[in-house]
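Annotated sample (chain length 215).
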Amino acid sequence: MSSTHEHKPAAAGDFTAADEPYALFADWLREAEASEPNDPNAMSLATVDADGLPNVRMVLLKGVDGADATPRGFVFYTNLESAKGRELAATPKAALCFHWKSLRRQVRVRGLVSAVSSEEADAYFASRARGSRLGAWASAQSRPLESRFALEKAVATVTARYPIGEIPRPQHWSGFRIAPLEIEFWHDRPFRLHDRLVFRRGDAAALWEKQRLYP
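Output written by the structure step:
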């Protein structure tokens, strides 16, 4: 990633001294939450389709720690019948990219994908706004839509079905956890002499190995 012009980078200290990627990511995310105007937890998610072609879209990070508070991966939620849901079911590998423009920082993640537990999915679904829960039932995500009216009619039908009270989580709606095998941190520096630090491991249970990279 390169800058379009030279500038003074945001102060960051020597982040390359970090020994563990989860703590460094948590620090950067907290700073992004204080500086980014919209969705500091937004990330691009790359998957691969049945023909081997890559597919990328923006999703929102909903957690980094596992249910037992042990860092196990990066969590997001989706319709399992969507394009990304089908692609991850067929090829459970993915890549993520966070870009915080206000901080001139980027984090790239690559790893293995697994489904979150039903308990995790239920708990997160219950925390969503009521309209979002109704939308999860109404939207046949990624499939052809004849008109906006058809979507609004589907929402009205679901709203009539659940006028008050709890809205159960649809079986086709859940989450995925990406257990990283590689996490790379990038920080803009003058004259494109950027700082890059990568953590790698052979499997999700192995210890991290750290290495600086040329920009």
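Annotation: Residues 1-11 have pLDDT under 50 and may be disordered.
Annotation: The domain at 15-125+173-212 is CATH 2.30.110.10 (Pnp Oxidase; Chain A).
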